[in-house]
């Protein structure tokens, strides 16, 4: 990254806070990223995609999100799980969870039911697809299929 002073910074010289921010953790302009290295991982023939909404009183939804914050870091590297929150003026909220597991649906369901039973994900919340189909679905293209 090149910062406002024109210095070329790598991960070590920019520090963990700036590195976190340029990966989507902050909303400001931290500098110009001129190079980015990615480590690709093998993708299996089939992946599992989770989409589930959990509406309810704000307090209960907040508890569900609090649990997600503690569970997320302990999930296997093959598991991605995010949440989007929406509120209302009536004291209710909705937590919309999206998950992607690099493996079959039954394995994903087993992992999540053991690590995050509070989510109450059901088989109908999951789809098993190719990675390309899951990417299209996450981008909002195509229809969900199981």
Keywords:
4 helices, 146 residues, flavin adenine dinucleotide binding, Vanillyl-alcohol Oxidase, Chain A, domain 3, 33% helix, 4 strands, single chain, four-stranded antiparallel sheet, alpha+beta
Q: How are the SSEs ordered, and which strands pair?
A:
Blueprint: H1 11-25, E1 47-57, H2 58-71, E2 79-87, E3 92-101, H3 105-115, E4 126-129, H4 131-138
Antiparallel strand pairs: 1-3, 1-4, 2-3
Description:
The chain has 146 residues and is α+β, with helices and mostly antiparallel strands. It folds into 2 domains: 1-38, no CATH class; 47-138, Vanillyl-alcohol Oxidase, Chain A, domain 3 (3-Layer(aba) Sandwich), CATH 3.40.462.20. Helices cover 33% and strands 23% of the residues. β2 (79-87) and β3 form a beta hairpin. The longest helix is centred in the first third of the chain and has 15 residues, at 11-25. It is globular. The mean pLDDT is 87.
Shape: globular
Number of domains: 2
**Sequence of strands across the biggest β-sheet:** 2-3-1-4
Number of strands: 4
Q: Give the termini separation.
A: 42 Å
- What's the helical proportion of residues? 25-40%
Q: Over all CA atoms, what is the radius of gyration?
A: 18 Å
User: Which CATH top level class of the largest domain fits?
Assistant: Alpha Beta
Indicate the CATH architecture of the largest domain: 3-Layer(aba) Sandwich
| SSE topology string | HEHEEHEH
Q: Give start-end ranges of low-pLDDT stretches.
A: none
Determine the number of helices (DSSP H or I, runs of at least 4 residues). 4
CATH topology annotation of the largest domain: Vanillyl-alcohol Oxidase, Chain A, domain 3
Structural class: alpha+beta
Biggest sheet character: 4 strands, antiparallel
**Average residue-wise pLDDT:** 87
